Amino acid sequence: MLDKALDRLEQGRIAAEKGDLEGALKHLTVSISLAPSAEAYVERIDVFLKLQELEKANEDLDQLDGLEMSNDLLERVRLLEEKADAADSEETEQIDGEDAGSIVRTGVAIPLNCRNAAEVLELMPRAKVSSDGETLVRKSDSSVVWSCSLVEQDKDLVDIMTNWPLTSKKDKHAIKKHGIAIYISGPNEGSSPEITQMNIAEQLLLTAKEIIESFSGIGVYVLSSGLVFSKEHLMACAKDLDAQAYIDTFVCFVGGDGHYYSCGMHALGYPDVQIAGEPENPLEFLREVALGILVNELDGVEHEDIEFASNVWGRDVALFMADCVHFEEDHPYFNPYGMWSTEC
């Protein structure tokens, strides 16, 4: 058991050094489950901090109490504690003149037609993006800094993307055969202090486009809504960069049995919309409201309850501001801006 734990610990270290943070996390978690050790916890704390999973990093720091550590390891723990404290302080600072939390982290996963991380790194000098293995920026505009990780043979991503009903047979085959996927999420420290949520959405669209162009991306999985679409769809949206393109990239519309809602508007800085009841054309109505929110820039702060003139329903509809209750606060689909609700 101990040998297996040590082997997984070493695999986790190697993966982290290569920039495969998700892979490192999996190996280190298995190592801890087999034989908890200070070394494995310290490595996982480092990975959690790089992924900006501050709460999980602090939980692992608490697990170190009572575990034996060498002086070198104690010094490393001290440095990680300082890093965690600094990250905790950053969460309370203002990032764009508004309260912390007004900026929501978002990101995408893109399976690539590359064999492994080495091939991606070989292409990097000629790519439209630049990465040090942990962060990534556009070479033409570095206003947003993204977390970056390369994950080989990502079975979870394959399952998600190939089970999406609109994924073509050609894309399903390519996704199943992909060697490596790239995950990016942000914004990170070092991003422009003037960025807004819409700036981030725009930069994410353009960054995803340039990753696809540079490394033969196959398709896109949006982390903040669970949407899956083809590279062609992403390229078209990145070209248009209008309200419809943002909705088509970041927002999905779901529901049934008397409950319909949008998911993903928080990536654009807006509340989502929900309907209780069984009206005609509920999803078409949700799309209409989501588009109207962007076009009219209704931010949900100045407009708590509103009247929306619906062409789909042919009447004015009262929308009441409510909390997002579909997902827990730490879920990537959770909308901190709330939801506009109506009953029919």
What integer is the average pLDDT?
87
Q: What distance separates the N and C termini? A: 59 Å
**Neighbour order of strands in the largest sheet:** 2-3-4-5-1-6-7
Low-confidence stretches: 91-101
User: Could you state the order of secondary-structure elements as H and E?
Assistant: HHHHHEHEEEHHEHEEHHEEEHEEE
Radius of gyration: 22 Å
**Count of alpha and pi helical runs:** 12
Helix/strand-derived class?
alpha+beta
Strand content: 15-25%
What would the keywords be for this entry?
344 residues; alpha+beta; six-stranded mixed sheet; 13 strands; 44% helix; globular
Short structural description:
The chain is of the alpha+beta class and 344 residues long. The chain has 12 helices and 13 strands.
Q: What can you see in these coordinates?
A:
The protein has 344 residues and is of the alpha+beta class. Helices cover 44% and strands 20% of the residues. The protein contains twelve helices and 13 strands. The chain has helices at residues 2-17, 21-34, 38-50, 54-63, 71-92, 117-123, 155-162, 169-177, 197-215, 231-240, 243-250, 282-296, and strands spanning 106-112, 129-131, 135-138, 146-152, 180-186, 219-222, 228-230, 252-256, 259-263, 272-276, 306-310, 315-322, 339-343. A hairpin with a 7-residue loop joins β3 and β4 (146-152). The longest helix has 22 residues, at 71-92. The relative contact order is 0.09. Mean pLDDT is 87; it is low at 91-101.
